[in-house]
Amino acid sequence: xxxxxxxxxxxxxxxxxxxxxxxxxxxxxxxxxxxxxxxxxxxxxxxxxxxxxxxxxxxxxxxxxxxxxxxxxxxxxxxxxxxxxxxxxxxxxxxxxxxxxxxxxxxxxxxxxxxxxxxxxxxxxxxxxxxxxxxxxxxxxxxxxxxxxxxxxxxxxxxxxxxxxxxxxxxxxxxxxxxxxxxxxxxxxxxxxxxxxxxxxxxxxxxxxxxxxxxxxxxxxxxxxxxxxxxxxxxxxxxxxxxxxxxxxxxxxxxxxxxxxxxxxxxxxxxxxxxxxxxxxxxxxx
Length: 286
Fold this sequence. Notes:
By secondary structure, the chain is mainly alpha-helical. Helices cover 47% and strands 8% of the residues. The protein has helices at residues 21-41, 57-62, 68-71, 78-89, 107-115, 139-151, 156-171, 224-230, 235-257, 260-274, 277-285; strands at residues 182-192, 210-221. Strands 1-2 form a two-stranded antiparallel ribbon. Helix 7 packs across helix 9.
């Protein structure tokens, strides 16, 4: 992106699979080093080096020769089964599934709909689209945000997940809020899976090491985001925002302390061995 002053900006977007912090930091560090080299000498002094193909996330987390194809049911523990049961039970809280058709409110019907190869939230003639908007925060605003998060014993990520859920409540049903309606929201939180399990990948190169855990936040009143933004200093709105932030922190801590990342990878590995990937991608895109 160029401006009238001759300055330019590199806008970099990554596939979600390498959105783990380690891979992104490595890419950014190398790009900044090359830019600095060009500014200093007019050329890139850091020569490109061939990297080995990184190990798979399953091997890094579960260990070598410890996949489903290697150990079969021996890798499944009671804790793994509890993880699966807990994930299934999330459906009973009826989290928002877009587009939010009437049938999406029935968790059993939604599950059956997905199994039958349809989108649980219903279809939409206009199609789906994702709007990506880049934002920057000033140094002062970032420092204030960090200080507020420390005061409330949460991370910036916890605060961002709360903000995402509240903002989503403004746009549900195309922004047509329903009086008295409260909904639960699933927020997909990305995790660097190098940090869990066997931890065999040492971040020597970019790898597909991003996993996730679902945060279940709510019930949240429709248009709660607008309410908070209209009077952010009110005690009631402050309580709502930081309570959601602390809920995200608690769920993340519980997920990590119960070896959730390991169980998640174990289940993911099993699912990949039996899934019809083409059909899975089609369902996900609906």
